[in-house]
Prior knowledge:
Elements: H1 2-5, E1 65-67, E2 73-75, E3 82-86, E4 96-100, E5 103-110, E6 115-120, E7 134-135, E8 141-142, E9 149-150, E10 156-158, E11 179-180, E12 182-185, E13 188-191, E14 222-228, H2 232-239, H3 245-248, E15 271-276, E16 279-284, E17 287-292, E18 296-308, E19 326-342, E20 345-354, H4 358-363, H5 366-394, H6 399-402, H7 411-424, H8 444-447, H9 459-488, H10 492-495, H11 497-525
Antiparallel strand pairs: 1-2, 3-13, 4-5, 5-6, 6-11, 7-8, 8-9, 9-10, 12-13, 14-20, 15-16, 16-17, 17-18, 18-19, 19-20
Helix pairs in contact: 2-7, 9-11
Amino acid sequence: MEALRTPFFPSSNLSVLPTRFLSTRSYDKPLLHFAFNPSPNSSICANFSKSQPSTPRSSAINSTESVDSHGEEKFDWFSQWYPVAPLCDLDKRKPHAKKVMGLDIVVWWDRKESEWKVFDDACPHRLAPLSEGRIDQWGRLQCVYHGWCFNGSGDCKFIPQAPSDGPQVQASKKACASVYPSAVQNGIVWFWPKTDPRFRDILMKKKPPYIPELDDPSYTKSMGSRDFPYGYEILVENVMDPAHVAYTHFRIMQAPQGKDNREGGTPIDINMKRLGMDGFDAEREHAKTKFIPPCLYHTCLESPAIQSNKSVSSALTREESSSSDHVSTRRVLMTLLCVPVSPGNSRLIWANSRNIGLWIDRIVPQWIFHMRLNLVLDSDLYLLHVEERKIMKAGPSNWHKACFVPTKSDAHIVAFRGWLRKYSGGQLDWGTEFSEALPPTPSREQLMDRYWSHVVNCSSCSVAYKGFHVLEVVLQILSIVLIGIPTAINHSVMRSVNGRITVVSMAVLCFAASRWLSFFIYKTFHFHDYKHAFR
Length: 535
């Protein structure tokens, strides 16, 4: 029963936390101020979990920071690893279009090297999107516009229009596709947003953040992604904020202290432990969190379990005991990757794990978890979209003046905005690709669309979506067939009143079921409006 009370679906924010993990302690000093001091770079699991052995960074390529004209360290947004997509949502049979940091990229499976590759999504011939192409019979990425073919290194291997006995134009460097360094870690494809050959071996100098529990068979692993019509900064703030759960996600998530009313909020005592250019650590009751810029926000929730002889698989907070028995720990780990897409747009990739209730994931399909998760995400989507526009109107550098954050429950947000102001001038640096203008606000139905933001990219939800559509059509056909049976069949049973009533009733039920299923499909996979006033 405890496993059932534990949130077993992936979440995009702290709204999934069980009530017992939320601190209810009061605070003494209401005003928050953090002095940021750079600290040495640490691994993802410092003070949290084991990490893969780190490789010393090369002094030739400083991949983390730069120095501005005043001699202050600045965060280099284009010298970082960025998550692209979970492997579970990538089809090896076709290329996939993605946008990260304003860059249009294509992800595809190179059969020859058995690796996922990330290219610039533009054919060098006429700049047609390679993501609209195909994987040919030799495992090459083929541009669908004129048939140019590229191998995993970006070399052009075939130009159909070039005569075989003429100049080997495909050997020209100008015929090569631009290749980004890429890697797969924790079941996620990552890429480095620079195509310069100097960064070809950047993985040897700097690796993406690593979460050992996501590769631990004694933990579950649930992954997915969704795109949002609000920016990276707003997304990061939202996933760091535990205080909005009782109100924004009212009657979706479990209310603190079992309260089924709007007054379920309590003080949350969040204590910052380390702040620097490489992020920050924080603690609260039963939870430890870590932010590693630019994308990773990691939360470990734990509570004591039963006495056990079995050691805990992770060293996240493991304490050795002198006796043969020790208290094992229930752990829920939420790894949330906030990806900057473009101004006013972001993507959340969740990769969560736990060491309890493992059987649930074996019998319950992922689309059921995603159905509830999308309701959680929708419940604050419109709020965040509007909030971003008001912050932009005030000016991102004036966030601390425009927003009043007096309690410790906002400590994560204050720390993030302080980090952003100190190391990046208060906002993400897009280079020269974009202006500061946000895209126009679409209709509410387009704003909260689930199909294009999640379903079409999710392997589990897309299969369920197609299956329900087939079932809907079958029910409609069956209702029509049943209506025609009494007139088509000259049988004593069909001539009787009871027989006709039975067949017609079945036809009506099938038609009603198809109409209900159509409504279910629309609300689950397309658009489900959320009105807080009527919750």
